[in-house]
Amino acid sequence: MLILKKFAQDKSAVIGFAIVVAVVFIAVFGPWLAPYPQDATMSHLTRRLRPPSWAFPFGTDNLGRDILSRVILGARGALKVSLLVVGASMAIGVPLGLAAGYSRGWLSEAIMRVTDVFLALPQLILALALAQLMGPSLESAMIALVATYWPFFTRIVYAETRRLRASLFVDALEGLGASPTRIVFLHILPNAASPIIVRATIGLGFTILVAATLGFLGMGATPPDPDWGLAISQSRTFLPGAWWYATFPGLAILVTVLGFNLLGDGLRDIMDPRLRRSR
Amino acid sequence: MTPLLELDDIHVHLGGRKRWFQPDIPPVKAVGGVTLTVAAGEILGLVGESGCGKTTLGRTVLGLQRETRGSIRLRGKTVSGARPRDARKLRRAIQYVHQDPGAALDPWWSIGHSLEEGLVITGHGERSRRREIIEQALAAVGLDPTAQRRYPHEFSGGQLRRIGLARILMLDPDIVILDEPTSGLDMSVQATVLNLLLEIRARRDLTYLFISHDLSVVRRLCDRVAVMYLGRIVELAPAASLFERALHPYAQALLAAAPRLEPGESRTIAIRGEPPSAARLPAGCLFAGRCPYAEPACRTEEQVLQAVAPGHEVACRRWREIAAGAPPTAAAA
């Protein structure tokens, strides 16, 4: 309970946590929360580019769709992409990092050199190349993001595993005759969990940002998806007159990414085994 | 009667690597030819300065470090030559207590959980039986069963040593390797830990391999003492006769360097120079470069242990002269 108390004292972490909870809530219940859920696909050309009002708090876009509804509906897509990308990156990166960190010699070297090669790939450029190759779609953007994000997990897990492998308690376990599987999964993985969780949390925000960038460049989501990045891209031609068109999806991205980052930083501070208490 | 543990000409080389286009990195000869027998029930002290290979020797006996050469026999059965994991299975009867038992516990696991794990690994029956064994072991080291629910960082250094001891006692070992069991403890805690060690040994019929550089503790506790220098045993003697009359110049210097309570006699003879690198050992006696009694012949002849009295062996060709009180030769280079 010490952990909760400590967490509650960290204001920015609590704010981050609240934002993340709100975003998840909106993503899950979006279709029921949005005032005009049908605006995900339907257009109403009679009410184009209305400024914010009581009926349309965030205004309407060039096809007369309610921007508030589209921002709400976009949360699910953004969250789905980032969860899938980070989940897949962890699924690839964490086992490789454990294997490279625990083994010695050529296996470890081989994994880490391949990781270095992938780490050297610039994320956006790979995503653009893949989009060219496969045609612009959310899938190609996600593949590109996974291909460039897993090495971060490998590096972190590798470093942690190396450190823990040299620690006395792993030595003691080897002395007791514990199997490598037992040591790696029951001891090294839990002890390495905190940096992984922190990285994943920050990665969720980061992925939302990059996915939005790709949407903006026309390489991610395709119309008429209520994607935040795509909305900003489409709004460009109506600036500065229709300022609300770009502003509210942009704010949605800003707040969500900020929330994940604050939460990630807060988690980093409380992930300390010494906060574990028996009472 | 076969001795409990026999080491025959154990060599351990660490590291070392062949490289392409560059000179090879020579291995560090951490242990170079140790022959030693340990009788059941005795406490054998292993002393020497830092880096002399005593911990490496302990880990080799345990099986975590594979010997490069030589053989180890446990109750007459050869247990050497296996990969570390198999070696540990063969040597269940040997257990090791770490220098810092606090760091030897997973910080995320409660004590009870950590203790239970040793039993799970060695395949001890069902849960209720394990509970019982853990409680007995904790009681044996003077801790109450509530300790199980707590985490390593909630204990003091002395308590952690007890936990470390409980952890291996549960596995019912014959030989326990104690690596610096008293380092970092204050005097009163040291005394309780040492008393506990003696008490447990008497109760469980244990044999201790006691690695330490605290000579006063060794003198109090050990039956026999092996003095190590650069991976070799230079003198092996019953504790009483070693502290009475050490023969090897290194052992003499080591004993002389220990602080004493008698006033007035505070001047100690420091050994000059640094020990040579264990990666590039000199020819002849390894101590010749720092030895006050060195002769030219010392630098060419390798020294092996020779018996000087029953149970007392020394690896010095001039031990007779030194015993007779020969003066130090001119300054060693």
TrEMBL record, chain A:
It is a multi-pass membrane protein. Keywords: Cell membrane, Membrane, Peptide transport, Protein transport, Transmembrane, Transmembrane helix, Transport. It is found in: Cell membrane. Its main location: membrane. Pfam families: BPD_transp_1, OppC_N. The chain crosses the membrane at residues 12-34, 81-102, 114-134, 140-158, 196-222, 242-264. GO terms for cellular component: plasma membrane. Gene3D superfamilies: MetI-like (1.10.3720.10). GO terms for biological process: peptide transport; protein transport; transmembrane transport. PROSITE patterns: ABC_TM1. CDD domains: TM_PBP2. Residues 75-264 form the ABC transmembrane type-1 domain. PANTHER family: D,D-DIPEPTIDE TRANSPORT SYSTEM PERMEASE PROTEIN DDPC-RELATED, OLIGOPEPTIDE TRANSPORT SYSTEM PERMEASE PROTEIN APPC. Belongs to the binding-protein-dependent transport system permease family. This is Peptide/nickel transport system permease protein. It comes from Enterovirga rhinocerotis.
From TrEMBL, chain B:
It comes from Enterovirga rhinocerotis. GO terms for molecular function: ATP binding; ATP hydrolysis activity. The lineage of its organism: Bacteria, Pseudomonadati, Pseudomonadota, Alphaproteobacteria, Hyphomicrobiales. SMART domains: AAA (SM00382). The keyword Metal-binding does not apply. Residues 5-255 form the ABC transporter domain. This is Peptide/nickel transport system ATP-binding protein. It comes from the Bacteria. Belongs to the ABC transporter superfamily. The keyword Nucleotide-binding applies.
